[in-house]
Specification:
Distance between the termini: 30 Å
Strand content: under 5%
Radius of gyration: 17 Å
Structural class: mainly alpha
Oligomer: single chain
Mean pLDDT: 95
Number of strands: 0
Number of helices: 3
Bound molecules: zinc ion
Low-confidence stretches: none
């Protein structure tokens, strides 16, 4: 399948969203770049980088709980909404 997007050297998939930053991210997706050069330790766990998606999810998770919203309930509601669109 041909696309106009450059291909990520790490995962071989087209770089669409961040194609303008293809060279900046060493010809990778931003996430692939993060995992390759910035992320420390288990890729399934948050790292110390403030841009780390896992870390950001963890922060928002904590904040929701502080605000009295159960994060798991929020996800369940979002899943239901998605199927009822
Ligand atoms: Zn990639
Ligand atoms: Zn990370």
């Amino acid at each position: 399948m041909a696309t106009d997007f450059p291909v990520c050297v790490r995962c071989n998939l087209p770089v669409e969203k961040n194609s303008d930053s293809y060279e900046v991210f060493e010809r990778m997706h931003w996430l692939c770049f993060h995992l390759e050069f910035e992320h420390q330790g288990d890729p399934d766990r948050p790292c110390a980088d403030p841009a780390c998606p896992w870390w950001r999810i963890e922060v928002l998770h904590r904040k929701l709980a502080e605000l009295g919203v159960d994060p798991d309930t929020a996800i369940k509601e979002a899943i239901n909404e998605r199927w009822h669109l």
